[in-house]
Amino acid sequence: MSPGLDLLYDRFIINMNLFKENYPQYVDRHRHRVNTSFYPSDFMYQLPKDIKVTSLNHGCKKCLHACENVTLTPSPMCRGWQCMCNARNQIYNHSIITDNQYMFKKPMIMAEKMTIRDKRVTNETQVPDLSKSVITVLTGRRVLKTKHELQIQLNLQDKYGNMLNRGGDDVRAWITRSKNKMAMSGRVFDFNNGTYLVRFPTLWNGTNTVSIVIPYYREESTTLFRWYRTLNSMYYHVGLFMKGPLNQNTLCLPVPKIIGYQEICNFTTLNDGSPWYCGRPPSANLTCNDFSGLRDYRFSDVGATHAESELLSRAPCSHTNRNLSVILNIEGKDISRTDLPLCSNLPKSETWDLSTPSGYFNGSFYQSTKCKTSDNISTKIAKALNKTKLIMVGDSTMKQWFVALTKSIKCKFVAKYVCQRKDWQGSVEFILHAYPNLYSDMKGRGRQEYTIKSYTSIFNSIPKSGRYVVAMHMYGHFARMRYNIFRDTIQSFLPALRNALNRNSELQVLIKGPHVFYCTGWVPCINDFMGRHLISILHEEMEEFRSRVVYLDYWDMSIAAVNDNIHPPPKFVWNMIEYLFAFIHE
């Protein structure tokens, strides 16, 4: 680390400690602790009798609604999609109380405990009004210089100009300089009274813009947590059951409790040991053995108050209408980035440090604040893949990596998702994780197109010798469900991961963390709300492996990049790939 950078971070840490001493009431989102009691009734969904509710699904053009022109009926003679339109199913009949009390014994994250006693949103004035809120540059009384720290205070107010006496908003911030396209995320502190503090080390000079966005107000988090807590998910899959001309569809989830079904079919064995269940078809002539595959069912509907519906029917890109900014000037010289260790030589435990910023953009290149990548990424990739099998396992965003990488290295495909370079004696393989979606049917066309494996199976398949690199990703499909499914999945593969690392000393495992995306087709269907909560769970569950597994922080990177889409653009995908290879030992 260079003397200038070393001095900057020494000061940054000292200032952090002083900040904690002077402001003991602050909430660092990564370390916040809340002692809140909760009860089985918290896991029961019942619409308030004295509040008019509206369908949440009315604004979703992409969310399929199989029951729009079908009369709700429990008839066992139903056909196809009609079979899901059951008057006894709370998903379609919101007057029926949903009992999800079995979730009572599942661990609850602190972020949800913070909101569990919050009341329903019934008035739009309960949420922040950014036009009334105030940004203050706390270091504005003196000239800002590099090698110092920038502090920005945000005070949230309602539409009447009153301070909001609560915290818990998802506040994100970044600083950019248009010259040379410098960009970096900032660390946010929550005072739990409507006041937030954002802190940046000043790494470069010039005219800069600090942007602050709040994709999810506390009231939205409260609402989303309640829906996930009482309904498990708002994004379902459809199970297809067929026998001769008879075909019926039911709802499916990776939990054995599916609302509206008394009997459940267990397809965990078909899903390579990862839990998967579907409701039993209503016809007595169809059994679980008549299961023939899956389809996507984006339908997302719960009874919402008018205020909740309006709040969650916001503009698709949250940073366009929830953004506050301030322009400021920083004097001094840009800080040198020399004498940093190679990222591949950085202790793996350092990658699990969530101190922000983890890195910054210097033009089109993303530079870690702790280490440096190779100057020649092509050479780095060639050396990293020499006599190496790289296994990329995850969802469609990991497939993006696979497609971009294989095009770059010009390897030869020996199977649809296996590509080799004979001169390197290395290969790259993509595996779709065992979490069913439209293109990963446990039966049918999806099963023929992809290799579907659980994380446990992948780690169990690693031999005693040979150079293997596993880059794994768990995010998009897990973000659609309550986070306990994510936690259960991690816990399920830890023994296999431990054995694989003990068995093969050359094995390298890197976990691709979640990324932000501001543009969603429909907020209740799929969004990045769960992202930072999944990061927290991942860090808790992987405590034992911090010295043996690399964590790739893409949350900070995607904030700095202001990434819009769940499937990032090619340029950003390559930024992520470069970051991956920076941490692979040659």
UniProtKB/TrEMBL annotation:
<feature type="domain" description="NXPE C-terminal">
    <location>
        <begin position="366"/>
        <end position="584"/>
    </location>
</feature>
<dbReference type="InterPro" id="IPR014756">
    <property type="entry name" value="Ig_E-set"/>
</dbReference>
<dbReference type="Pfam" id="PF06312">
    <property type="entry name" value="Neurexophilin"/>
</dbReference>
<dbReference type="InterPro" id="IPR026845">
    <property type="entry name" value="NXPH/NXPE"/>
</dbReference>
<protein>
    <recommendedName>
        <fullName>NXPE C-terminal domain-containing protein</fullName>
    </recommendedName>
</protein>
<comment type="similarity">
    <text>Belongs to the NXPE family.</text>
</comment>
<dbReference type="Pfam" id="PF24536">
    <property type="entry name" value="NXPE4_C"/>
</dbReference>
<dbReference type="InterPro" id="IPR057106">
    <property type="entry name" value="NXPE4_C"/>
</dbReference>
